[in-house]
Amino acid sequence: MRSRLNIQRDLPCMVTRLPDVTTAAVLGHLMSGLLCSLFPLRIVVLNVLFFSRFFSSVGVADGVGGWRDYGVDPSQFSATLMRTCERLVKEGRFVPSNPVGILTTSYYELLQNKVPLLGSSTACIVVLDRQSHQLHTANLGDSGFLVVRGGEVVHRSDEQQHYFNTPFQLSIAPPEAEGSVLSDSPEAADSSSFDVQLGDIILTATDGLFDNMPDYMILQELKKLKYTNYESIQQTAKSIAEQAHVLAYDPNYMSPFAQFANDNGLNVRGGKPDDITVLLSIVAEYTD
Fold first, then answer.
1. Which reactions is this enzyme annotated as catalysing (predicted)?
2. C-beta separation of 45 from 79 below 8 A
3. Per-residue pLDDT, 121
């Protein structure tokens, strides 16, 4: 039996950054602010996100950095995956209550694409149905989301891991490696539907946040959000990402990632340097 090639997370992950994006926009009933942490060294886009004004949709994808060891730019797969999701959403080619369908259609488009594309990525898509006021989600891997109401987490994504530091992931492998590269079906994404209320805070982020900040720290930062204007939301997203960034480089901090590593028999302490994307949204009345 052939050995299976498992493209794992880097331990620690490579230093990465995103494009310089600091925007806020009203997206349907979602008033949002984005903050991507910027790292000082290697410039690689590993996290990607999209917005849709028409369907109140957001998504993040996190390319698996281990592909770099095989000469593959890990940003290309995640970027193309999210661009395809964005196009499908803008074209109205999806059912709001089925974000797994967006992910599935996008992934199979990539498989059939004649342009060579290799890599792996996790993905998280969140869709707000304006009519039903329901939040529909699809999460594959270890990016994810939190819904916060009244200072408490009332709904969240479930992390999907095969084993330590190896999340569920969509992959496209070279023909000679097909069957030996870890790859999950998009239909394996965890899906959920949840009734939202005005004022609910929806935080969508990559694992760089959750690996470095436990819920209580995130909630402490969210409590500082007193106003729902763009500037306040943006500042709060920035504060959360910056704190996670600082903790990621603290060698004495027992981070959630280090705790998980210890639970798996590894003597690890400190934060986990990683790319960090934080997308903060508030459910609000829609105004054009």
1. O-phospho-L-threonyl-[protein] + H2O = L-threonyl-[protein] + phosphate; O-phospho-L-seryl-[protein] + H2O = L-seryl-[protein] + phosphate
2. yes
3. 94
